[in-house]
Amino acid sequence: KRKSSLRKARETLQSKASTVSVYTQALEKEEVVKNSGLLKELTLLTNMTLDYMSGKYKEVPFNVILGITAAVVYIACPVDLIPDFLPVIGQVDDIAVLTWVLKRFHAELMKYSEWREQNTEKK
Are the CB atoms for 69 and 19 separated by under 8 Å? Predict the structure, then answer.
């Protein structure tokens, strides 16, 4: 499943439209995002990826963007280790993947958050 998600992430990152679509699908999984309290962080991951793709933010290695996108592809996919249609338990693997990504790339996300604040203040 990991290799499949990485392959799909590479394909997704080929176009901004595909990337936006996958991240939007992940954000729309309200039961996962809202119940885990991770909406702010997932939104920040989304913004970092889009700013990277648009060339606004290049201070993050591509492998970080790829890893984050692979996780988002997994979350957006309705067919995963534990099917999403199973109440509560169906979202456990999605929350676990999102939590792992946030821990794994926490430092990069904090750098981006600071960069974003500084660049938002200038406007």
Answer: yes
* Full DSSP string of 47-65: HHHHHHHTTS---S-HHHH
Residue 106: what pLDDT?
A: 93
DSSP letter (8 states) at residue 80:
S
Residues 6 or more apart whose CB falls under 8 angstroms from that of 98 comprise 32, 36, 38, 41, 42, 71, 75
Q: Alpha-carbon distance 49 to 57, whole Å?
A: 9
Residue that wins the pLDDT comparison between 106 and 75: 106
Summarised one tens digit per residue, pLDDT across range 20-66 is 888 888 777 655 566 566 778 888 888 999 999 999 999 999 999 99
Instruction: Give the Cα separation of 35 and 53 in Å (integer).
Output: 29
